Amino acid sequence: MSSLSLTDVWKIYDGDVVAVREASFEARDGEFLALLGPSGCGKSSTMRMIAGLETISKGEIRFGDKVVNNLKPAERNVALAFESYALYSPMTVRENLEFPLRSRGFAGSEINSRVEKVVQTFQISDLLDRKPSGLSGGQAQRVSIARALIRDPNVMLLDEPLSHLDYRLRTELRVKIRRIHDELGATTVYVTHDQEEAVALSDRIIVMNHAIIQQIGDVEALWTTPVNRFVAGFLGDPAMNFIDAQYTDGKMETAAGKISAVAPADAVTRTEFVFGFRPEDTEVQSAGEHEDGLHGEVMVNEFHGERCVLTIKTTSGQLKAIDGRASPWRPGDLVRLVPETGKSHLFCSKTGAALQHGKEAAA
Ligand SMILES: Nc1ncnc2c1ncn2[C@@H]1O[C@H](COP(=O)(O)OP(=O)(O)OP(=O)(O)O)[C@@H](O)[C@H]1O
């Protein structure tokens, strides 16, 4: 096993497409890292450079102390499971699973016991004699993960490995992936655009957007101290509410209403900013006579079992609030949203950077 580090790594395609810009991070020995971001942000390019499937335009990648920039994929001892499966088509599923072990000289009995184990784990015993062309997308994906995890790699790289599976199987298999990671102790990087998957699986999350790493941290850090509006909005479902606001006479004013005491007035040196608050940190009250709060009209109240999600139309745009399972509000009701100000966030209107006491937070 080994740690993995990237130092100022760039990927530039065709001379001018910057897919990854100055990426630097370290996965500690045995750590499970998720690389999270929207489509096209550069996640797969990062993974392919770590795997050795793409050249590195600039920068350095190390496994432990060793620079691997010029090593071929086979020399890096990485286990790969990519969304596109990449199974060997002339071979049966069994032969596909045995291949990485045979090519490393494992004994026959060891091969049999390892195949038996992954076949059980990934529920693919009835597929062993089929060729990849006879598998569904979800079945091929399970075989691909099983093949990646069958040996003892230095580093496991899993790129959207569960994307073709239904929700139930996805949640089941992610638990198994995490367990195998813990058993092997392998350093793992897991690419996903699904925040729920990243949160459930990983020790730390790297959030990427537009080729740039935005923030690296555990879930708690990303949740409570997002460095910018993108990170704040990417984690959480429903996402954080954002509204334009300004400070006047010690109160925060928005088009939808006033809120007192977001932060001491003298702490906010800017007059205009974006106010962010999470739906779960928002109290919903009857509009009443109170001046304080964000006023609006209930559009939808969705029942989600343990909670209800309200969509409220305001002059600052649509906002979301989470209420208890017995939420009384109905479409057309006039309500007042009172964000829990201790848990709210302020962002620069121009750059989106988080503001802390009027200053931009360090990334
Ligand atoms: N071989 C290539 N040649 C030119 N541009 C490429 C190539 N591969 C990727 N790109 C571009 O690089 C950027 C990042 O792509 P990448 O596949 O790394 O993103 P991603 O975050 O993995 O996206 P997705 O989640 O959709 O797979 C995109 O703009 C993409 O169009």
Automatic annotation (TrEMBL):
UniProt keyword annotations, A-Z: ATP-binding, Nucleotide-binding, Transport
Ligase listed as a keyword: no
Keyword ATP-binding: yes
Membrane association type: Peripheral membrane protein
GO cellular component, one term: ATP-binding cassette (ABC) transporter complex, substrate-binding subunit-containing
Domain of life: Bacteria
Protein name as catalogued: ABC transporter ATP-binding protein
UniProt organism field: Hoeflea prorocentri
Lineage, top ranks: Bacteria, Pseudomonadati, Pseudomonadota, Alphaproteobacteria, Hyphomicrobiales
